[in-house]
Amino acid sequence: NAGVTQTPKFQVLKTGQSMTLQCAQDMNHEYMSWYRQDPGMGLRLIHYSVGAGITDQGEVPNGYNVSRSTTEDFPLRLLSAAPSQTSVYFCASNLGGGRDTEAFFGQGTRLTVV
Amino acid sequence: DQQVKQNSPSLSVQEGRISILNCDYTNSMFDYFLWYKKYPAEGPTFLISISSIKDKNEDGRFTVFLNKSAKHLSLHIVPSQPGDSAVYFCAALPWVIQGAQKLVFGQGTRLTINP
């Protein structure tokens, strides 16, 4: 059971570079989301999707783009990386958006922007 | 402004004793609360949850207590085991008519169980 798979696990970018963090789930979950974890801040929601073709912003969306063309994949794009985007990024999926559905998280991508 | 606060960055407990992790929230719109556990180099995993219509939920060694008037919840682990050593995140969900599970997390508490 793969669950939620994130690639890459580690990445170093130069300021101004762009990249895409990949997230794939094999549980046929409708709901997917991206969080970033920073020291002393917990996890904060960047973007989420309630199904293919539908995305919306979370708490900290600036500097990130998402799209959801399939149920399985939810990539996160950094358009022009900044040092403030140095963080650990987690992708999560739920069977639905209901409060009693468990969120399954990937292992995370540690991104450093220099 | 941190809407969910875990004021203890770390906690050390003897194996076999009770571990109590605390969490406070400020937003009255939160009506569902969750605890997640995270090991190093892994993603968070769901542990236990509680709805605001309850004041206690129990699952094996884990019990979550909710005090709505104080806007406070706590996670009790009894007895504590070495495998419980991890970072614990408190999270909350606001009341909405249709759900998008937009979790609001606390900063986390690192629990260390000593043999």
Short description:
The complex is a heterodimer of chains A (114) and B (115). Helix content of chain A is 0%, strand content 51%.
Tell me what you see in this structure:
The complex is a heterodimer of chains A (114) and B (115). Chain A has strands at 4-7, 10-13, 19-25, 31-38, 42-51, 54-57, 64-66, 76-78, 87-94, 104-105, 109-113. Chain A is mainly beta and 114 residues long. In chain A, strand 5 and strand 6 (54-57) form a beta hairpin. Chain A is globular. The model of chain A has no long low-confidence stretch (mean pLDDT 93). In chain B, strands 2, 4, 5, 9, 10 and 11 form a 6-stranded mixed sheet that branches. Chain B is mostly beta strands and 115 residues long. Chain B has strands at 4-5, 10-14, 19-25, 30-38, 45-51, 56-59, 62-67, 72-77, 86-94, 104-105, 109-114. Chain B is built from no helices and 11 strands. In chain B, a hairpin with a 6-residue loop joins strand 4 and strand 5.
Low-pLDDT segments of chain B: none
Distance between the termini of chain A: 36 Å
Number of helices of chain A: 0
Helix content of chain B: under 10%
Per DSSP E runs of 2 or more residues, the count of β-strands of chain A stands at: 11
Largest sheet of chain A: 7 strands, mixed
Structural class of chain B: mainly beta
Q: How many helices of chain B in DSSP terms?
A: 0
Helix content of chain A: under 10%
Oligomeric form: heterodimer
| Total strands of chain B | 11
Proportion of strand residues of chain A: over 45%
Detail the topology: elements first, then pairings:
The complex is a heterodimer of chains A (114) and B (115).
Chain A: E1 4-7, E2 10-13, E3 19-25, E4 31-38, E5 42-51, E6 54-57, E7 64-66, E8 76-78, E9 87-94, E10 104-105, E11 109-113
Parallel strand pairs in A: 2-11
Antiparallel strand pairs in A: 1-3, 3-8, 4-5, 4-9, 5-6, 7-8, 9-10, 9-11
Chain B: E1 4-5, E2 10-14, E3 19-25, E4 30-38, E5 45-51, E6 56-59, E7 62-67, E8 72-77, E9 86-94, E10 104-105, E11 109-114
Parallel strand pairs in B: 2-11
Antiparallel strand pairs in B: 1-3, 3-8, 4-5, 4-9, 6-7, 7-8, 9-10, 9-11
